[in-house]
Backbone:
């Protein structure tokens, strides 16, 4: 008779089902809890999870923004490089004796002046590269002169 009662009583059936699985008590899954402290604890735990998820979301958004900025920067550098090669085909050939005036003929022109203003970082990088190459060549020549000849 007790077996028949457990089949008609859904609560005892659920308790037996969860009990046979090795779980002693799962009050939130079987029956709702009416303990205010237990509910407060669950709310506190869920708010902690929510804040953790919000933090991860903001970190993900910052990472995406950083990657987008890197992409924009790389595209800008590529565009500047293409503009430089289109404006000054001789500059890419490595003419070391060129001055900024030789690089940008007609500097007084309206649109040409704007092109110069946009190209100053590229020009500065080219000049720095040339200076570094000259310094490296001078160091290399100095080392080759110091070595004894066999």
Residues:
């Amino acid at each position: 008779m007790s077996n028949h009662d457990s089949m008609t009583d859904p609560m005892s059936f659920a308790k037996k089902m969860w009990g046979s699985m090795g779980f002693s008590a799962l009050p939130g899954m079987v029956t709702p809890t009416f303990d205010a402290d237990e509910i407060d604890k669950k709310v506190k735990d869920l708010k902690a999870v929510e804040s953790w998820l919000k933090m991860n979301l903001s970190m993900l958004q910052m990472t995406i923004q950083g990657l987008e900025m890197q992409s924009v920067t790389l595209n800008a550098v590529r565009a500047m490089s293409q503009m430089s090669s289109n404006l000054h085909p001789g500059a890419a050939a490595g003419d070391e004796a060129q001055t900024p005036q030789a690089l940008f003929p007609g500097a007084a022109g309206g649109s040409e002046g704007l092109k110069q203003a946009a190209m100053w970082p590229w020009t500065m990088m080219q000049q720095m590269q040339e200076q570094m190459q000259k310094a490296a060549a001078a160091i290399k020549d100095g080392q080759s002169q110091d070595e004894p000849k066999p």
